[in-house]
Structures are given as C-alpha cells and as structure tokens.
Amino acid sequence: MCRHLAYLGAETSIHRLVVAPRHGLYEQSWAPRRQQHGTVNADGFGVGWYAEGDPVPARYRRAVPIWADPSFADVARVTRTTALLAAVRSATPGTGQGEDAAAPYTDGIHLFSHNGRLDAWPEGLGALAATLPPADLLALEARCDSAVLWALLRRRLADGETADRAAAAVVAQAAAHSQGRYNILVTDGRTITATAYGDTLFYGKLPGGVVIASEPDADGAWTEVPDRTLVTATREAVHLHPIPHAMADRS
Fold first, then answer.
1. Domain ranges of the chain
2. For the chain, first and last CA: distance in Å?
3. Is 144 a catalytic residue?
C-alpha cells in the first residue's frame, strides 16, 4: 500500500531522486520489488520540495499514475532542491480518490506521508477521530486513513511536541485502536523522521545526503530498518530507536 521516500542533501533535481534511479520510486509505481500488500501504486502521486530561501515547501500532486503525467517529467527535470518527500499511492479501499488524498500532506514547514493502512477503515476511524478537536476533523484534507494520521500528528506538532516523539506516539495510538501498517515520513526540510511499522523501510547514504525509502533503488548502499523502529535523520547521520511493543499495544 503505497511507496514513499524522503531526501536531505546536496542540491539535486527531482528527476535524479524520483525518476532516474533504476527500481526507484517512479518504477515502484508499477513494479515494486519489496511491496508485501498490493501490486501497483497507480492511485495518484505527489512530490513536496523545499526551495532555497523559503521554509514552506511546494507540492505537485495528481490523482493519476505518475507515469501518466507527462508534465511531471518536465517539472522534475528542471526543479532542484536540497530536501524532498515523494510518494506513489495505492488507495485503501473505501477512501477518497482525488488528488487531495495523495501524499504529501503539508502544514507550514512540514511534509507528511503514510505508507500502510488502517485495517479497520472506516470502522476504526471513530475512536481515533474522537481524540481530535472538531476543528481538526473539519480541516481533514481528504477522506482517507492517511489524512487522519496526519491530523493526529499535526495536532501534536502544534502542541509543541518534537517530530520524533509525535511520530512514535501517533503510531502507538493508531496501533492501539486498529490493526494496520503505520510507516510514516515527516520532514521540515532539515530533518527526516520515519517509522517502520508493518512494512518495509530502508535508508541509503548518498554523497552529501541521505534517503529514507520504502524500498531501495539500484543505486548505492542501502540498510534495511527493523520493524517497529523510529528513524531520525539529518544530512550527516541516521539514528534508529526501537518502538517498544508495549507502547504500540497500549489502549
């Protein structure tokens, strides 16, 4: 269910990160190699990136498969960035189909993506939604499980929690209410926070930077992240922290 990646590093083109790599995110939209749930990711795509001098990211999202949008190829070829989050979508049955459901979601300086699903969708939504203020529910960008997880995380960020603590807490909260797969990515353009919870996650070092992705491309050296792990990364370093089983099982 979906593939995604985040990058921090030396300035490079979106094409170099998303389209060019063999077995990279572009190819994973129709031929993922490590995806254990679903077969293709053709229900939309999105890219968010940061431009020099502006902390608020730009986004390009569509409800079509990434290979079906020739305009994206031109945008990707000429757009350069030092930080990026991109995703290709395999929609959870019963969720929204518009481009507003395609990651990345954004608020202020943050970009967010969710790879996985809430197994009890939409039945499991009630208990999770009840923890949100009504204004947050009304502000949901799309009718889908990923948008609910983003609302939970965004609320914690707004309340002053750091991204790593907020991500771990949201995964624990979601897992306590419903079985599911909760791999998330969030970045502010300077750091990346990710969780491996029920699906594959890897990180790779590039000259002057780092990539965290659902699955590796054919370039460079990649390391698999153990399941139930919180990842925090900067350009210079990647740190792994276990998400305790007890934390994910609490009610």
1. 3-249
2. 25
3. no
Output the CA angle 24-100-175, nearest 5 degrees. 75
The CB-based long-range contact list for 157-161 (8 Å cut-off, 24+ gap) reads 157/107, 157/110
Whole-number Å distance between alpha carbons of 87 and 102:
8
Q: Contact at 8 Å (CB) between 211 and 18?
A: no
Distance CA 248, CA 251 (A): 9
Q: Is 88 helix (H, G, I), strand (E, B) or coil?
A: strand
Fill in the DSSP letter of residue 119: T
Does residue 200 contact residue 215 with C-beta atoms inside 8 Å? yes
CB 204 within 8 A of CB 6: no
pLDDT tens profile 187-215: 999 999 999 999 999 999 888 899 999 99
Instruction: Evaluate whether 211 touches 200 at the Cβ level (below 8 Å).
Output: no
- Contact predicate 248/175, CB 8 Å: yes
Q: Which of 1, 2, 196, 243 is catalytic?
A: 2
Distance CA 15, CA 22 (A): 12
Longest dimension (CA), the chain: 48
Structure tokens at 48: 């968010």
- At 102, the pLDDT band (50, 70, 90 cuts) reads very high
- CATH homologous superfamily of domain 3-249? Aminohydrolase, N-terminal nucleophile (Ntn) domain (3.60.20.10)
pLDDT attached to residue 251: 32
